[in-house]
Amino acid sequence: MSSVQQAASSEPRKYQLFIDGKFVDAESGKTFATPNPATGEPLAEVAEADKADIEKAVAAARRAFEGKWGRMSARERGRLLFKLAQLIEENAKELAELETADNGKPIRESLYIDLPQVVENFEYFAGFATKIEGETIPVSGQFLNYTLREPVGVCGQIIPWNFPLLMAAWKLAPALAAGNTVVLKPAEQTPVGAMELARLIQEAGFPDGVVNIVPGFGETAGAALASHPDIDKIAFTGSTEVGKLIAKAAADNLTKVSLELGGKAPNIVFADADIEQAVNGAMMGIFFNQGQVCCAGSRLFLDERVKDEFLEKFKEKAEKVKVGDPSDKATQMGPQVSSEQLERIKSYVGVARAEGATVFVGGESPVLDEKFQKGYFFQPTIFSEVKNQMRVAQEEIFGPVSCVITFKDEEDLIRQANETIYGLSAGIWTRDITRAHRFAREIKAGVVWINTYNMFNAASPFGGYKQSGYGREMGKHAIDLYTQVKSVWVDLSGKPIGWFGK
Ligand code: NAI
Ligand code: MG
Questions:
Q1: Of 239, 303, 447, 490, whose CB is crowded by the most CB atoms within 10 A?
Q2: 213 and 112 part of one domain
């Protein structure tokens, strides 16, 4: 029997909170419904955590941190994480189907991108548990000085809906590898994956309270977690707007914060690029996951000399993207996650027109079969004649909407590319290697892709410059976010301290 419930069941699924190793109702008894974004039909009924439940979860995480977990060896923590990775892999098909039902992303993405990366992250950090080391420092005098790298403590983690399971993995895996305990709040739009993960965490044998998962809304459960005085660290992925609220709430308790926020990435095509490859890269940059990607290449900068050739090919391919039933393996784009997101994207079509941009491709919801008429679908869309200072080029639309801007030369390009409050990622398409590496230095962004886009690996750091946030997730840098350094001094001389003792 698989641990994960089948996605196909017609009855809405039911989920409780996961606190102190047990599945429990919310203190208030409240629940909320989460729909399948492809059909608008209810998918699950989920217990709704609020302040009282956050209190319980934080207390459980504190007890676990002070208890058995805190004394567990790194090897044992690593083995639990490996076990969890294995359980996820065994249930990957069911988890992918549920992820698609909850978020709307095409099954080919859930199955072949999200789930493998979830497993990869748990495996990578499982291996890291035994490699977290201190240092010995060559100080002056007769002393041994060394550092201990210790867990931060109880971590609050708030994640978004665009990669529900993968964001849970990015947050949980390094925190647990380093020996912390966690209270994780999934997004209200997509709580299902995290609740299934809770079952697997229980099955893997993590001690009670090490991981607590509390679905609920941002303004209530999220805010209670971010402002909780007994949280040692808060990690957040989501909008820049809420990131600022989190940082403010954390300031009162001086809780450590890491933030992974919005983006408006430049994806740049020079005249010497392989145009076919660059068109495919532009598509990957903006249509992947319905454009609901913080590092989406949403500002497409085209060299004036290749603009016409590029746009002709881009239009042809964008119009062929298969939009529809996300559970169909041939589907390339599913619905947006929610009606709010769909409305937000639609409103930007009006903004673009009012600002003088052209709706070159798409710009509407597609006409689909009866079954999907209540779904939150939107066509692959390209705005041309965009100027970098327009709102559509400066604000995160978070949909399958490419804004095409042209440039004359490299200097003109760099200036425009950096003219944004964000700095999460950037892409460049060119055969000129000196230009590519020069660009990598001059762009203010945390990730740069050269002749590729949206590449990730658990070993490679990810995070933002400027208002895209601070801290780096994945790789060894993630361990820095979840550990603190203690410096220990030992006298080796055996003599009393002379200063006052004489
Ligand atoms: P959001 O930032 O409000 O939500 C992300 C998470 O934060 C959710 O778990 C939510 O419950 C929680 N949250 C919301 N308000 C909170 C508060 N006051 N205190 C603590 N936690 C809180 O994002 P939303 O409203 O879903 O989407 C709005 C826009 O944000 C999108 O259109 C997109 O531009 C951006 N966004 C960016 C993401 C990224 O990956 N960087 C992910 C999701 C949204
Ligand atoms: Mg919000």
A1: 447
A2: yes
Catalytic status, residue 99: no
Domain presence at residue 457? no
Check which CATH number belongs to the domain holding 407 and give it. 3.40.309.10
Asked if 238 and 328 sit in the same domain, the reply is no
> Exposed, middle or buried, 264 (CB in 10 Å: 0-12/13-18/19+)?
buried
Residue nearest to atom 24 of ligand 1 (CA): 239
Nearest CA to ligand 1 atom 32: 398
Q: CA-based angle 68:71:74, to the nearest 5?
A: 115
Concerning whether 294 is annotated as a catalytic residue, the answer is: yes
445 touches 421 (CB < 8 A)? no
412 and 293 together in one domain: yes
| pLDDT, one tens digit for every residue, the chain (502 residues) | 345 765 556 678 999 999 999 999 999 999 999 999 999 999 999 999 999 999 999 999 999 999 999 999 999 999 999 999 999 999 999 999 999 999 999 999 999 999 999 999 999 999 999 999 999 999 999 999 999 999 999 999 999 999 999 999 999 999 999 999 999 999 999 999 999 999 999 999 999 999 999 999 999 999 999 999 999 999 999 999 999 999 999 999 999 999 999 999 999 999 999 999 999 999 999 999 999 999 999 999 999 999 999 999 999 999 999 999 999 999 999 999 999 999 999 999 999 999 999 999 999 999 999 999 999 999 999 999 999 999 999 999 999 999 999 999 999 999 999 999 999 999 999 999 999 999 999 999 999 999 999 999 999 999 999 999 999 999 999 999 999 999 999 999 998 887 786 6
Domain residue limits at 123: 7-261+468-487
Q: Is the CB of 158 under 6 A from ligand 1?
A: yes
Q: Which helix (H) or strand (E) segment is 197 a member of?
A: helix 192-204
Q: How far is the CA of 241 from the centre of ligand 2 (A)?
A: 8
Which of 37, 40, 34, 38 minimizes the C-alpha distance to 12?
Answer: 34
Residue to mutate, 239, 376, 378, ligand 1, most ligand atoms under 8 Å from C-beta: 239
Q: Are residues 45 and 148 in the same domain?
A: yes
262 CB under 6 A from ligand 1? yes
Domain count, the chain: 2
Whether 244 and 314 map to the same domain: the answer is: no
